[in-house]
Amino acid sequence: MDLFLLPSDSRSLGEITLTAGVTQFWDPGSRIFATLGRYDRLGNFVSFFLLIGTGFLFGLKGKNGFGSDSKKIRWWLFSLFALGLPTLMLTYSRSSWFAFILGFLFIGLWIKRDRRVALSLMTFIIVVVGYLAITGISVRYITETPGQTVAERFLESFSYTRWSGEYYGLGRIYWDVQTPLRVVPSSPFFGVGPGQFGGGAAAALRNTTVYEALGLPFGVFGTEGAIDNNWFALWGETGTIGLILYIWMFILLFKKSVEIYRTSKDPFTRAMAIGFAACILGVSFNAITSTLFEIRTAAFYFWLYAGFVIVLGQQSKQVSYENHSSK
Known about the structure:
Elements: H1 2-5, E1 11-13, E2 16-19, H2 39-58, H3 70-90, H4 94-111, H5 115-135, H6 150-155, H7 160-168, H8 172-186, H9 200-204, H10 209-214, H11 230-263, H12 267-289, H13 296-326
Antiparallel strand pairs: 1-2
């Protein structure tokens, strides 16, 4: 199915090629990607909606439950997690794994203080430590290989050999170091300009101007144009002021979502709000490892659900005000 599902058409604007299709750079049949072209894009998509579902999962119980709709929502959630969790695992997208875990722990531990989640986390840590002790795997030296197990793929995230390989191979780690050392100092406050460095625009337009001026390779591997870190791409293009404003926007969205969760009386609104707050954490993490803000299959839904949460919060606040006034 890999060759059938991988898109190969290109789009052009005049003489400029905007996309050149997708190149399969992983072992055939080893990771699933559905119709999204890349396994990490499917992973980001699935983890996003699993976190929205997590908000509803924790909203099923308690005095603010969904009442007569609980049974229907429970079946919907069962289907979502039964299909979504195995899919997320089989994408082998570590960034998506960690994003989901981060958002899930935020809701389960920080918001709900659920002992079962705390116990599950402790069990997971014990299992990982036991696995390392029994197998004798040296995490420091793990590198990506065809046929890699889920456990090895997870542990590779903490491999020093992989980190150093990414740095010297001009991968993401290289740009995590070079962006603050060389790109940002060249224009620290306002940046080098939109579409000039690190993101999808520079990559699609093959814009090498800034890279050549600073004596840097053209993005990841010296050929891709993008740097696989959206936050640092924004930092380089819009400067420190632009990055601060963007982070400020995310913080305000996060605080507003949590506020709506705590103040709304509508269980649907509360579930959506806290699920989206978890998504903000997950997406923020994903952006450290990819150009997620520019990927339509994920970015579109992020801002769409941001709008849903804000509008639902306003409606809930209006209903609460009207009920108070009638009393």
